[in-house]
Amino acid sequence: MQVITIANQKGGVGKTTTAVALGGLLAGQGKRVLLVDLDPQGSLTSYFGHDPDTLQGSVHDIFTSVLNPDGRREVPADLPAQLLRDTTCPGLMLLPASTLQATLERKLAGVEGMGLVLRKALGHLRDEFDFVLLDNTPVLGVLLINSLAACERILIPVQTEFLALMGLERMLHTLTMVMRSQKRLLPYIIVPTMFDRRTGASIKSLRRIKHDYPETAWRYAIPIDTRFRDASQAGLVPSLFDPSTHGVKAYTRLLQDLIGTIEDTGLT
Ligand SMILES: Nc1ncnc2c1ncn2[C@@H]1O[C@H](COP(=O)(O)OP(=O)(O)O)[C@@H](O)[C@H]1O
Ligand SMILES: [Mg+2]
């Protein structure tokens, strides 16, 4: 099982879209894929027609399951599997979000041993999935820290626009701190998104990303494509909604590059 997290401390950069697009493509290749919605806003959960305000059984239950007085923080072995839901895409499952997750940051502040809860939960699903994609909140807190501790690699979507690079620097700073405290190296790829080749601002910021991060920026960019919004309104992964769009082709290329590097490092 390979766990990939999709993170940026800025909202609206294409995190959820990247999770859905890559998840759909992997499932289309016959992989068993799990999407996990860590964001209390629950966009990924809403994408597949569930209401994060009313839904029963979510990521929230995993975090509250370990709040026992013995302090062992063990996730019950059968719990994660009970929370999974099918999606409109065969082979793609969802571990949904509840808006209650927003209360976790306050509830868990100062509670010892909460950093590895998600990692332990996913450990119980190890034999069920080939890939797990984690969709994140932009807020730096216990959920994002858990996500970074549970993954083998990170995708950082960055919108190709004027102010995006500041958010990117913040995210990379967080990543450096986390890697230092966990004493491990986490490979990451910066993925330029919503690239619009008709605008100077988009071209300039893509050039800047490639210049400033020559080793870690993906060699291409995800173009702006209105079909992503149409796909989300239809509740379908983009590759099932319309496999021929530029956006889907770009995510297919990203996936090829990702899988290539995973095989290079022998992680599959
Ligand atoms: N490449 C793209 N082209 C056009 N619209 C996009 C693209 N990627 C994402 N969007 C749209 O932009 C909005 C924000 O994207 P989203 O993936 O929800 O960002 P995040 O999860 O980082 O907040 C959504 O309405 C989504 O449909
Ligand atoms: Mg999102």
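^ adenosine-5'-diphosphate complex. The domain at 2-264 is CATH 3.40.50.300 (Rossmann fold). The chain has one domain: 2-264.
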